[in-house]
Design goal:
This protein has about 200 residues and is an alpha+beta fold. The chain has 4 helices and 9 strands, in the order ααααβββββββββ. The two termini are about 30 Å apart.
Length: about 200
């Protein structure tokens, strides 16, 4: 079972646990209800690689944190992730609407840690194809480039970051992140999104 299908299955399980139809959930997130319904159906079936913005909106509508779609079990104790233990991967697209090909592979650094307020990840970033769609959601993001180069569109500005550089920003401002120069990059990202 792929990580993409796990995310979709967890969305469906949480939705059904709350006795919500697809249409009920679609109406609880910003945007067009019909488009949101199609998005939820495609995410739950595993047909679509999810994007973070709609996942954050779905998580908020369900009253859970983003990590609820990625965790196997809750653990109140400290969670230790060893350097070579990045096997758990969830794939996402940089497009706000989702896509058929992943551009971001997230390796959770706090999987199974319950009651957390931050989501730390190592992210393998692929070059973006086509026009970038800026996303916006409540919260904050901290990005540290570990290898390669990335470009961040933030509002009307663009930032080029290389290994060792970092940026911290309010994610309510429209933004998009992708690998620069046509090569892959790797970043440490810490995302805070209020529930």
């Amino acid at each position: 079972m792929s990580a993409i299908n796990i995310v979709g299955q967890r969305i469906r399980a949480l939705r059904e646990k709350r006795q919500l139809s697809v249409e009920d959930l679609a109406g609880a997130i910003p945007g067009d209800r019909e488009a949101n319904s199609r998005l939820i159906i495609e995410l739950e079936s595993g047909e679509l690689v999810p994007s973070l913005t709609p996942l954050l909106q779905i998580a908020r509508a369900l009253g859970v944190r983003l990590g609820s779609f990625l965790d196997d079990q809750a653990n109140p104790d400290p969670v230790v992730t060893k350097g070579g233990d990045l096997a758990r991967t969830s794939s996402f697209t940089g497009s706000n609407l989702g896509a058929k090909r992943p551009e971001l592979n997230f390796h959770s650094l706090a999987a199974n840690k319950s009651d957390r307020h931050m989501e730390p990840f190592i992210i393998d970033v692929k070059p973006h194809e086509g026009e970038a769609t800026l996303s916006t959601h409540e919260g904050e993001e901290f990005i540290h480039v570990m290898s390669g180069r990335i470009e961040i569109a933030y509002g009307q500005k663009r930032y080029q970051l290389s290994a060792g550089d970092s940026i911290y920003y309010d994610s309510i401002v429209p933004h998009h992140l992708h690998a620069a120069d046509g090569s892959d990059a790797r970043i440490l990202a810490v995302v805070y999104a209020p529930v």
